[in-house]
């Protein structure tokens, strides 16, 4: 199977929104009047971002999900994406599953594949995604204010718990492991929530490298600090059954959750809950922003906890 046969068989689709899609030197598509373009790029490298044991269909899903999560954090609606794919060989069985998972998620979010590149090499997936947001309404990292409540969507920590099982530092029964493995391999980008929070949230970011590490980007860009109630972080039943130190490690610093962390004024709490209801995803208040810089962790009794939790860094981890 040659390069262009591969593209034609697995990744060529009729253009819908795009004026020009797959098959030319450039994709061409329109952005509506009064709208701004949002774009993001993420790369997934085998052995670094995913294990060789992941099913191809799940890998295709996750490759796009992590990019859609960036659009969600910006409050943008997905439009289109490009795919750059390095493959050790043109393996039809792998490509059948990979493209099925990729394109199923793309169709679920109305996100059109409009071009890309393929080459031979170590397995490496790079997606650039494009979205639109009404002018001036993008959610950014720099808008948090002292007194704002801090929220997180869904539950956090399961992906890190799965990684600990893969690393053989922890053990789970079959059903528990499959649940956390799904969280690791099939994250659900909170696109609808991001759009519902436009005009309500003052800042937002997605959790890719660990909740505290990603929240710190908001705090730094907004020049505020925060108090986080560590044991209020939403967690699955599987997570709740684990020792408290492991729960805190996974939920505070685990990463790979692709949930949204965001801030909103305290008097907009009802609007936040309405947005969550519209998006059909739970949100949990986990702390507040304050004028004093730095990030303080407290337990359920209000006692300060040692903050020794780091976040993922590609060149330090």
From TrEMBL:
Mg(2+) 1 binds at residues 41-42, 117. One of its GO terms (molecular function) is magnesium ion binding. Its EC number is 2.7.4.16. It catalyses: thiamine phosphate + ATP = thiamine diphosphate + ADP. Pfam families: AIRS, AIRS_C. Mg(2+) 2 binds at residues 42, 70. ATP binds at residues 116-117, 141, 208. Keywords: ATP-binding, Kinase, Magnesium, Metal-binding, Nucleotide-binding, Thiamine biosynthesis, Transferase. It comes from the Bacteria. Mg(2+) 5 binds at residue 209. Substrate binds at residues 49, 256, 312. CDD domains: ThiL. Residues 145-297 form the PurM-like C-terminal domain. Mg(2+) 3 binds at residues 25, 70, 206. Pathway: Cofactor biosynthesis; thiamine diphosphate biosynthesis; thiamine diphosphate from thiamine phosphate: step 1/1. SUPFAM superfamilies: PurM C-terminal domain-like, PurM N-terminal domain-like. Catalyzes the ATP-dependent phosphorylation of thiamine-monophosphate (TMP) to form thiamine-pyrophosphate (TPP), the active form of vitamin B1. Belongs to the thiamine-monophosphate kinase family. Reaction mechanism of ThiL seems to utilize a direct, inline transfer of the gamma-phosphate of ATP to TMP rather than a phosphorylated enzyme intermediate. This is Thiamine-monophosphate kinase. It comes from Piscinibacter terrae.
